[in-house]
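Narrative of activities, Objective 1.

The group set out to show that a structural description can be obtained from nothing but a protein's sequence at a throughput compatible with the screening campaign. Below is one input-output pair from the validation batch, recorded exactly as produced.
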Amino acid sequence: MIRRTLAITRKEVIHILRDPRTLAIMFLMPVMQLILFGYTATTDIGLLPTVVLDQDRTLQSRELVDAYRASNYFDILFYVRSEAELGRLIDGGQAKAGVIIPTGYGRRLTAENRASIAFVIDGSMPSVATTAFSAAQTVAQAQSTVLIQRVYGIEVDEQPGIDVRPRVWYNPDMKSANFMIPGLMAMILQVQSTILTALSIVREKEEGTIEQLIVTPLRSMELIVGKVTPYMVISLFNLMEVLLIGVFWFGVPINGNILLLLALGLLALLVSLGIGLFNSTIASTQQEAIFLTFFLMLPFIFLSGFFFPLEAMPKVLQWISYFIPLRYLLVIVRGIVLKGAGLSILWDQAAALALFAIVMLALAASRFRKRL
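Output recorded for this entry:
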Protein backbone atom coordinates (compact mmCIF):
# COMPACT_ATOMS: atom_id res chain seq x y z
CA MET A 1 0.00 0.00 0.00
CA ILE A 2 2.78 2.44 0.94
CA ARG A 3 4.73 1.61 -2.23
CA ARG A 4 1.69 2.26 -4.45
CA THR A 5 0.91 5.53 -2.65
CA LEU A 6 4.52 6.73 -2.99
CA ALA A 7 4.43 5.87 -6.69
CA ILE A 8 1.43 8.15 -7.21
CA THR A 9 3.13 10.86 -5.14
CA ARG A 10 6.29 10.55 -7.25
CA LYS A 11 4.22 10.76 -10.44
CA GLU A 12 2.50 13.95 -9.19
CA VAL A 13 5.83 15.54 -8.19
CA ILE A 14 7.30 14.83 -11.64
CA HIS A 15 4.26 16.40 -13.27
CA ILE A 16 4.62 19.52 -11.10
CA LEU A 17 8.35 19.86 -11.84
CA ARG A 18 7.75 19.54 -15.59
CA ASP A 19 5.73 22.78 -15.49
CA PRO A 20 8.10 25.40 -14.00
CA ARG A 21 5.73 28.32 -14.74
CA THR A 22 2.95 26.76 -12.69
CA LEU A 23 5.44 25.88 -9.96
CA ALA A 24 6.61 29.50 -9.82
CA ILE A 25 3.02 30.71 -9.57
CA MET A 26 2.38 28.28 -6.70
CA PHE A 27 5.12 29.90 -4.62
CA LEU A 28 4.79 33.52 -5.78
CA MET A 29 0.99 33.79 -5.65
CA PRO A 30 0.75 33.73 -1.82
CA VAL A 31 3.45 36.40 -1.57
CA MET A 32 1.68 38.65 -4.07
CA GLN A 33 -1.70 38.12 -2.41
CA LEU A 34 -0.38 38.82 1.08
CA ILE A 35 1.45 42.00 0.07
CA LEU A 36 -1.44 43.36 -2.01
CA PHE A 37 -4.14 42.56 0.52
CA GLY A 38 -1.90 43.51 3.44
CA TYR A 39 -1.61 47.06 2.14
CA THR A 40 -5.08 47.47 0.63
CA ALA A 41 -7.36 45.55 3.03
CA THR A 42 -6.92 47.96 5.92
CA THR A 43 -9.20 50.05 8.08
CA ASP A 44 -6.44 52.36 9.33
CA ILE A 45 -7.00 55.91 8.13
CA GLY A 46 -4.03 58.26 8.14
CA LEU A 47 -3.40 61.71 6.71
CA LEU A 48 -6.88 62.19 5.31
CA PRO A 49 -6.88 65.00 2.68
CA THR A 50 -8.52 67.95 4.44
CA VAL A 51 -9.67 71.42 3.39
CA VAL A 52 -9.95 74.38 5.80
CA LEU A 53 -12.30 77.35 5.60
CA ASP A 54 -11.05 79.75 8.28
CA GLN A 55 -13.49 82.65 8.38
CA ASP A 56 -12.12 83.91 11.71
CA ARG A 57 -8.37 84.15 11.00
CA THR A 58 -7.35 84.58 14.62
CA LEU A 59 -4.71 83.05 16.85
CA GLN A 60 -7.30 80.69 18.29
CA SER A 61 -8.43 79.46 14.88
CA ARG A 62 -4.85 78.88 13.77
CA GLU A 63 -4.17 76.88 16.95
CA LEU A 64 -7.15 74.67 16.18
CA VAL A 65 -5.97 74.06 12.60
CA ASP A 66 -2.49 73.28 13.90
CA ALA A 67 -4.01 70.75 16.33
CA TYR A 68 -5.71 68.92 13.43
CA ARG A 69 -2.52 69.09 11.39
CA ALA A 70 -0.45 67.67 14.25
CA SER A 71 -2.66 64.60 14.49
CA ASN A 72 -1.94 61.55 12.38
CA TYR A 73 -5.37 61.65 10.79
CA PHE A 74 -5.74 64.89 8.85
CA ASP A 75 -3.49 66.29 6.14
CA ILE A 76 -4.33 69.99 5.64
CA LEU A 77 -3.89 70.39 1.88
CA PHE A 78 -6.26 73.21 0.98
CA TYR A 79 -7.33 76.60 2.35
CA VAL A 80 -10.42 78.11 0.74
CA ARG A 81 -12.41 81.33 1.09
CA SER A 82 -15.97 80.07 0.69
CA GLU A 83 -18.16 77.07 1.44
CA ALA A 84 -18.74 76.66 -2.30
CA GLU A 85 -15.01 76.08 -2.87
CA LEU A 86 -14.93 73.65 0.05
CA GLY A 87 -17.90 71.78 -1.39
CA ARG A 88 -16.28 71.51 -4.82
CA LEU A 89 -13.10 69.98 -3.38
CA ILE A 90 -15.05 67.38 -1.41
CA ASP A 91 -17.40 66.68 -4.34
CA GLY A 92 -14.41 66.15 -6.62
CA GLY A 93 -12.70 63.78 -4.19
CA GLN A 94 -9.61 65.97 -3.69
CA ALA A 95 -10.56 66.33 -0.02
CA LYS A 96 -12.26 63.83 2.26
CA ALA A 97 -12.89 66.19 5.18
CA GLY A 98 -13.39 69.90 5.71
CA VAL A 99 -13.04 72.21 8.73
CA ILE A 100 -15.24 75.32 8.81
CA ILE A 101 -14.28 77.86 11.48
CA PRO A 102 -16.93 80.62 11.64
CA THR A 103 -16.36 84.32 12.15
CA GLY A 104 -16.18 85.20 15.84
CA TYR A 105 -14.76 81.83 16.90
CA GLY A 106 -11.79 83.39 18.71
CA ARG A 107 -13.90 86.12 20.34
CA ARG A 108 -16.47 83.68 21.71
CA LEU A 109 -13.74 81.35 22.89
CA THR A 110 -12.11 84.19 24.83
CA ALA A 111 -15.34 85.69 26.23
CA GLU A 112 -17.41 82.56 26.86
CA ASN A 113 -14.78 79.78 26.87
CA ARG A 114 -17.02 78.00 24.37
CA ALA A 115 -17.28 78.08 20.57
CA SER A 116 -18.50 75.85 17.74
CA ILE A 117 -17.01 74.79 14.45
CA ALA A 118 -18.35 72.69 11.58
CA PHE A 119 -16.58 69.54 10.42
CA VAL A 120 -17.63 68.17 7.03
CA ILE A 121 -16.90 64.52 6.23
CA ASP A 122 -17.21 62.67 2.93
CA GLY A 123 -19.50 59.76 3.83
CA SER A 124 -19.23 57.90 0.51
CA MET A 125 -16.87 55.45 2.25
CA PRO A 126 -18.45 54.65 5.64
CA SER A 127 -15.30 53.12 7.15
CA VAL A 128 -13.32 56.26 6.35
CA ALA A 129 -16.13 58.53 7.54
CA THR A 130 -16.46 56.68 10.86
CA THR A 131 -12.75 56.97 11.59
CA ALA A 132 -12.67 60.63 10.54
CA PHE A 133 -15.71 61.39 12.71
CA SER A 134 -14.08 59.86 15.81
CA ALA A 135 -10.72 61.50 15.08
CA ALA A 136 -12.33 64.92 14.63
CA GLN A 137 -13.97 64.65 18.04
CA THR A 138 -10.81 63.37 19.67
CA VAL A 139 -8.71 66.28 18.38
CA ALA A 140 -11.38 68.78 19.47
CA GLN A 141 -11.51 67.26 22.96
CA ALA A 142 -7.73 67.40 23.24
CA GLN A 143 -7.78 71.06 22.24
CA SER A 144 -10.52 71.73 24.81
CA THR A 145 -8.28 70.19 27.47
CA VAL A 146 -5.51 72.61 26.52
CA LEU A 147 -7.93 75.55 26.80
CA ILE A 148 -9.17 74.43 30.24
CA GLN A 149 -5.62 74.25 31.52
CA ARG A 150 -4.80 77.66 30.02
CA VAL A 151 -7.92 79.51 31.24
CA TYR A 152 -8.43 78.00 34.69
CA GLY A 153 -4.88 77.02 35.45
CA ILE A 154 -5.87 73.56 36.67
CA GLU A 155 -5.04 70.12 35.45
CA VAL A 156 -7.88 68.10 33.94
CA ASP A 157 -6.99 65.19 36.23
CA GLU A 158 -7.85 67.39 39.24
CA GLN A 159 -11.43 68.06 38.09
CA PRO A 160 -14.27 66.03 39.61
CA GLY A 161 -15.76 63.25 37.51
CA ILE A 162 -15.09 59.73 36.29
CA ASP A 163 -11.63 59.04 34.96
CA VAL A 164 -11.83 56.35 32.28
CA ARG A 165 -8.52 54.76 31.38
CA PRO A 166 -9.18 52.22 28.61
CA ARG A 167 -6.82 49.34 27.95
CA VAL A 168 -6.73 47.48 24.65
CA TRP A 169 -5.59 43.87 24.87
CA TYR A 170 -3.85 41.83 22.12
CA ASN A 171 -3.56 44.76 19.69
CA PRO A 172 -2.84 47.86 21.81
CA ASP A 173 -1.98 50.05 18.82
CA MET A 174 -5.21 48.88 17.13
CA LYS A 175 -3.35 48.32 13.85
CA SER A 176 -5.61 46.75 11.26
CA ALA A 177 -2.60 44.84 9.85
CA ASN A 178 -2.39 42.85 13.08
CA PHE A 179 -5.99 41.75 12.49
CA MET A 180 -5.96 41.40 8.70
CA ILE A 181 -2.61 39.66 8.13
CA PRO A 182 -3.41 36.55 10.25
CA GLY A 183 -6.79 36.36 8.49
CA LEU A 184 -5.04 36.61 5.12
CA MET A 185 -2.72 33.77 6.13
CA ALA A 186 -5.73 31.54 6.76
CA MET A 187 -7.56 32.66 3.63
CA ILE A 188 -4.56 32.24 1.29
CA LEU A 189 -3.76 28.85 2.83
CA GLN A 190 -7.27 27.53 2.20
CA VAL A 191 -7.97 29.09 -1.20
CA GLN A 192 -4.68 28.20 -2.87
CA SER A 193 -4.49 24.62 -1.61
CA THR A 194 -8.10 24.02 -2.68
CA ILE A 195 -7.47 25.35 -6.19
CA LEU A 196 -4.26 23.36 -6.64
CA THR A 197 -5.82 20.03 -5.70
CA ALA A 198 -9.07 20.73 -7.57
CA LEU A 199 -7.12 20.39 -10.80
CA SER A 200 -5.34 17.12 -9.98
CA ILE A 201 -7.81 14.41 -11.03
CA VAL A 202 -9.40 16.60 -13.70
CA ARG A 203 -5.99 17.01 -15.31
CA GLU A 204 -5.68 13.22 -15.49
CA LYS A 205 -9.01 13.10 -17.34
CA GLU A 206 -8.09 15.83 -19.81
CA GLU A 207 -4.64 14.40 -20.56
CA GLY A 208 -6.00 10.88 -20.98
CA THR A 209 -3.83 9.38 -18.23
CA ILE A 210 -6.82 8.35 -16.13
CA GLU A 211 -6.96 5.11 -18.09
CA GLN A 212 -3.48 4.19 -16.85
CA LEU A 213 -4.65 4.60 -13.25
CA ILE A 214 -7.74 2.50 -13.89
CA VAL A 215 -5.76 -0.62 -14.74
CA THR A 216 -3.52 -0.35 -11.66
CA PRO A 217 -4.26 -2.07 -8.31
CA LEU A 218 -4.58 1.34 -6.60
CA ARG A 219 -7.33 1.81 -4.06
CA SER A 220 -9.26 5.08 -3.94
CA MET A 221 -7.68 6.25 -0.66
CA GLU A 222 -4.18 5.43 -1.92
CA LEU A 223 -4.77 7.57 -4.96
CA ILE A 224 -6.15 10.40 -2.83
CA VAL A 225 -3.18 10.33 -0.42
CA GLY A 226 -0.72 10.16 -3.28
CA LYS A 227 -2.36 13.12 -5.00
CA VAL A 228 -2.61 15.19 -1.81
CA THR A 229 0.95 14.76 -0.49
CA PRO A 230 2.87 17.01 -2.96
CA TYR A 231 0.34 19.83 -2.62
CA MET A 232 0.42 19.50 1.15
CA VAL A 233 4.18 20.05 1.12
CA ILE A 234 3.81 23.06 -1.20
CA SER A 235 1.04 24.53 0.93
CA LEU A 236 3.05 24.08 4.14
CA PHE A 237 5.96 25.89 2.51
CA ASN A 238 3.58 28.67 1.50
CA LEU A 239 2.29 28.87 5.07
CA MET A 240 5.83 29.40 6.34
CA GLU A 241 6.36 31.91 3.55
CA VAL A 242 3.38 34.10 4.47
CA LEU A 243 4.23 33.78 8.19
CA LEU A 244 7.71 35.16 7.60
CA ILE A 245 6.39 37.99 5.44
CA GLY A 246 3.74 38.83 8.01
CA VAL A 247 6.31 38.98 10.82
CA PHE A 248 9.30 40.62 9.13
CA TRP A 249 7.54 42.77 6.50
CA PHE A 250 4.33 43.85 8.23
CA GLY A 251 5.65 43.56 11.79
CA VAL A 252 2.85 41.30 13.05
CA PRO A 253 3.93 39.70 16.34
CA ILE A 254 3.36 35.99 16.92
CA ASN A 255 2.42 35.70 20.58
CA GLY A 256 1.62 31.99 20.61
CA ASN A 257 3.29 28.67 19.88
CA ILE A 258 4.39 28.57 16.26
CA LEU A 259 4.60 24.75 16.28
CA LEU A 260 0.95 24.59 17.36
CA LEU A 261 0.11 27.01 14.56
CA LEU A 262 1.85 24.79 12.01
CA ALA A 263 0.22 21.63 13.37
CA LEU A 264 -3.30 23.09 13.22
CA GLY A 265 -2.44 24.67 9.86
CA LEU A 266 -1.63 21.16 8.61
CA LEU A 267 -5.02 20.00 9.86
CA ALA A 268 -6.71 22.85 7.99
CA LEU A 269 -4.73 21.90 4.89
CA LEU A 270 -6.26 18.43 4.96
CA VAL A 271 -9.70 20.05 4.88
CA SER A 272 -8.78 22.28 1.93
CA LEU A 273 -7.16 19.44 0.02
CA GLY A 274 -10.21 17.27 0.64
CA ILE A 275 -12.51 19.98 -0.71
CA GLY A 276 -10.28 20.45 -3.75
CA LEU A 277 -10.16 16.74 -4.50
CA PHE A 278 -13.91 16.40 -4.05
CA ASN A 279 -14.42 19.22 -6.57
CA SER A 280 -12.03 17.57 -8.99
CA THR A 281 -14.05 14.34 -8.90
CA ILE A 282 -17.21 16.28 -9.82
CA ALA A 283 -15.81 18.54 -12.56
CA SER A 284 -15.09 17.30 -16.07
CA THR A 285 -12.60 20.01 -17.12
CA GLN A 286 -9.99 22.09 -15.32
CA GLN A 287 -11.94 25.25 -16.09
CA GLU A 288 -15.05 23.77 -14.52
CA ALA A 289 -13.05 22.72 -11.46
CA ILE A 290 -11.71 26.27 -11.02
CA PHE A 291 -15.17 27.81 -11.36
CA LEU A 292 -16.60 25.34 -8.86
CA THR A 293 -13.83 26.13 -6.38
CA PHE A 294 -14.35 29.89 -6.65
CA PHE A 295 -18.09 29.37 -6.31
CA LEU A 296 -17.44 27.73 -2.92
CA MET A 297 -14.69 30.12 -1.83
CA LEU A 298 -16.78 33.30 -2.11
CA PRO A 299 -19.29 32.32 0.61
CA PHE A 300 -16.41 30.77 2.57
CA ILE A 301 -14.62 34.13 2.71
CA PHE A 302 -17.64 36.35 3.35
CA LEU A 303 -19.39 34.09 5.88
CA SER A 304 -16.32 33.09 7.88
CA GLY A 305 -15.73 36.35 9.72
CA PHE A 306 -12.75 37.31 7.57
CA PHE A 307 -14.14 40.70 6.53
CA PHE A 308 -17.17 41.22 8.77
CA PRO A 309 -17.91 40.10 12.35
CA LEU A 310 -20.21 37.10 12.54
CA GLU A 311 -22.18 38.73 15.35
CA ALA A 312 -23.34 41.45 12.94
CA MET A 313 -24.81 38.94 10.48
CA PRO A 314 -28.40 37.64 10.46
CA LYS A 315 -28.98 34.52 12.55
CA VAL A 316 -29.50 32.36 9.47
CA LEU A 317 -26.07 33.26 8.09
CA GLN A 318 -24.51 32.73 11.50
CA TRP A 319 -25.86 29.15 11.51
CA ILE A 320 -24.59 28.59 7.96
CA SER A 321 -21.13 29.78 9.02
CA TYR A 322 -20.79 26.73 11.29
CA PHE A 323 -20.47 24.62 8.11
CA ILE A 324 -17.59 26.73 6.78
CA PRO A 325 -14.10 25.45 7.74
CA LEU A 326 -12.47 28.85 7.29
CA ARG A 327 -14.49 30.13 10.27
CA TYR A 328 -12.61 27.78 12.61
CA LEU A 329 -9.24 28.36 10.96
CA LEU A 330 -9.57 32.14 11.40
CA VAL A 331 -10.23 31.71 15.12
CA ILE A 332 -7.18 29.45 15.41
CA VAL A 333 -4.76 31.68 13.50
CA ARG A 334 -5.88 34.94 15.13
CA GLY A 335 -6.02 33.24 18.52
CA ILE A 336 -2.44 31.93 18.33
CA VAL A 337 -0.89 34.95 16.59
CA LEU A 338 -2.63 37.78 18.46
CA LYS A 339 -3.71 36.28 21.78
CA GLY A 340 -1.15 33.56 22.38
CA ALA A 341 -3.96 31.03 22.86
CA GLY A 342 -3.08 27.38 23.41
CA LEU A 343 -4.70 24.09 22.46
CA SER A 344 -6.70 24.06 25.70
CA ILE A 345 -8.59 27.09 24.40
CA LEU A 346 -8.67 26.17 20.71
CA TRP A 347 -9.43 22.45 21.03
CA ASP A 348 -13.06 22.82 19.87
CA GLN A 349 -11.94 24.67 16.74
CA ALA A 350 -9.31 21.98 16.09
CA ALA A 351 -11.90 19.23 16.62
CA ALA A 352 -14.22 20.87 14.08
CA LEU A 353 -11.40 21.01 11.50
CA ALA A 354 -10.52 17.36 12.17
CA LEU A 355 -14.15 16.38 11.56
CA PHE A 356 -14.22 18.39 8.33
CA ALA A 357 -10.97 16.74 7.18
CA ILE A 358 -12.29 13.22 7.78
CA VAL A 359 -15.60 13.93 6.04
CA MET A 360 -14.14 15.70 3.00
CA LEU A 361 -11.35 13.17 2.39
CA ALA A 362 -13.83 10.29 2.77
CA LEU A 363 -16.23 11.96 0.32
CA ALA A 364 -13.40 12.56 -2.15
CA ALA A 365 -12.30 8.92 -1.91
CA SER A 366 -15.85 7.61 -2.29
CA ARG A 367 -16.49 9.85 -5.31
CA PHE A 368 -13.50 8.46 -7.14
CA ARG A 369 -14.35 5.40 -9.18
CA LYS A 370 -11.79 3.50 -11.17
CA ARG A 371 -13.77 3.56 -14.33
CA LEU A 372 -14.17 5.85 -17.31
